[in-house]
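Re: export button greyed out
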Amino acid sequence: GQNIDQPTEMTATEGAIVQINCTYQTSGFNGLFWYQQHAGEAPTFLSYNVLDGLEEKGRFSSFLSRSKGYSYLLLKELQMKDSASYLCAVRDSNYQLIWGAGTKLIIKP
Amino acid sequence: IAGITQAPTSQILAAGRRMTLRCTQDMRHNAMYWYRQDLGLGLRLIHYSNTAGTTGKGEVPDGYSVSRANTDDFPLTLASAVPSQTSVYFCASSELAGGGYNEQFFGPGTRLTVL
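Workaround output, generated via the alternate export path:
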């Protein structure tokens, strides 16, 4: 079967750094996406990795290791507005996205 | 219209009733998708369309049908609603189906309660 695992919830402090992990087992791999979803809102795109390594975009970075079936999203200089759920999704051999259940990130002052 | 719109925003429906959730995009994207999101579960694909005139089944298609008569519209119909279809429904679109840097854009969602 196909499986995406992420921690259910994480807590971090404003100004700090947090790493959200995602492990996956899917039928084929055609890229990995991270989305942000604020409560009651739609998911919005954050990052895309298809090759191994780190992709940096401002305060957010995403890392991929295809051999380990592993990715992480790194958020630096945390702000209160970063409180949200972070969704990991893998595009499988049918080019459809398989989604993790999301990690709820709570930022404390 | 800017992006993707969905209607209604929320709906309470009696079991057994028929319901159509509407989705319209103005980005001229070829591919469109319907997902449901339930607490503790990831987004699950119900149906998709890679281009106007074609549709396909996703992970959880039973009890739902779709049509894609044109590029912009992708309605989702529940023929006879059941309580297990209580969920938040998201419509999404992407420029193309397939690989590459091909992010999906999401509508604001429809919160559906079936009693």
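Chain A touches chain B at residues 4, 30-31, 33, 41-45, 48, 50, 87, 89, 91, 95-102 (CB under 8 Å). The button fix ships in the next patch.
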